[in-house]
Amino acid sequence: MAEVLVYVDHVDGAVRKPTLELLTLARRIGEPVAVALGKGAEDTAAALAEHGAVKVLTADAPEFADYLVVPKVDALQAAYDAVSPVAVLVPSSVEAKEIAARLAVRIGSGIITDAVDLEAGDEGPVATQAVFAASYTTKSRVSKGTPVITVKPNSAPVEAAPAAGAVEALTVSFGETATGTKVVARTPRESTGRPELTEAAIVVSGGRGVNGADNFHVIESLADSLGAAVGASRAAVDAGWYPHSNQVGQTGKSVSPQLYIASGISGAIQHRAGMQTSKTIVAINKDAEAPIFDLVDYGVVGDLFEVVPQLTAEVQARKG
Ligand SMILES: Cc1cc2nc3c(=O)[nH]c(=O)nc-3n(C[C@H](O)[C@H](O)[C@H](O)COP(=O)(O)OP(=O)(O)OC[C@H]3O[C@@H](n4cnc5c(N)ncnc54)[C@H](O)[C@@H]3O)c2cc1C
What we know:
- By secondary structure, this protein is α/β, with parallel strands linked by helices.
- Helices cover 28% and strands 24% of the residues.
- It is built from nine helices and 17 strands.
- The chain has a seven-stranded parallel sheet. Strands 14-13-15-16-17 form a five-stranded parallel sheet. It has a three-stranded antiparallel sheet with strand order 8-9-10.
- Helix 4 (70-83) crosses helix 5 and helix 6 packs parallel to helix 9.
- The chain is globular and about 60 Å long.
- The structure holds flavin-adenine dinucleotide (FAD).
């Protein structure tokens, strides 16, 4: 059966959920062969095998951590040369998209970014994308070379599909450009204990209606009751109420969770651009005419300071 290369996003051997989702999609096209690089690469094997990887190609070298993406591109290309896959799937993170783009240029292939679904086709995999602020859904196929496709988090379920997951060391020789850009400092982000915004299954966001940084605890409490990430509109971010790293929208992050709860957000096109592909959308807004109500599955017309705490209490009560 044809092999599909899957680039693994992991932290010291802990495989991140979007990679497990990629394995689900890869199995629709062929046999997943995973490529795990850097510290803890071999530790990824058990999780990858559990979710369908027939092989796990691993490589570790100081270059992966000490320099920006090129060493990883060299390694992914080495895996590509070794396997001759029918497609290369990469998670749609900022770093991985750069790796995917550089690989596509090197191997002379077409690339599709930010796919939200993938299916097998007679002439190669067909990717679904949500475009123009998610107002349209398109289906595309790479017509030149081996398709390189990046897939957004939450685009597919994580499914157990035990496979061999045989670990093989990947031989990588770094090119001249691999050490062109050195990492000179690292500052760990303060952990909130909440899931990463772009990967979270549930996102609870607040906007100008939250009316102050101190009030954001109302949004955070609901998020914590649901195990969700916290998002914010640009109005809330520009007012200094919440960090820019949590901004959802055209000039913020793009999220596609199972559930998106917008509180005190009007639903401007630039906000919608970052959340419209969410599977279920709920809005709480005191203005019944707010445009956000045009796209919701469930809407509550009311004051968020009355509605959100009640919702939090109800969720807590049901959790027992
Ligand atoms: C180039 C460009 C890029 C942009 N990028 C982004 C982006 O990435 N993300 C983004 O979000 N925006 C972005 N914007 C800004 C966008 O156009 C809107 O201005 C912004 O989204 C509005 O944020 P908001 O909905 O929180 O505020 P508002 O539009 O002011 O809406 C606040 C809402 O809260 C409701 N409300 C008020 N009080 C309460 C209450 N107590 N209870 C319930 N509801 C209440 C109001 O009825 C209102 O609907 C961008 C704009 C431009 C021009």
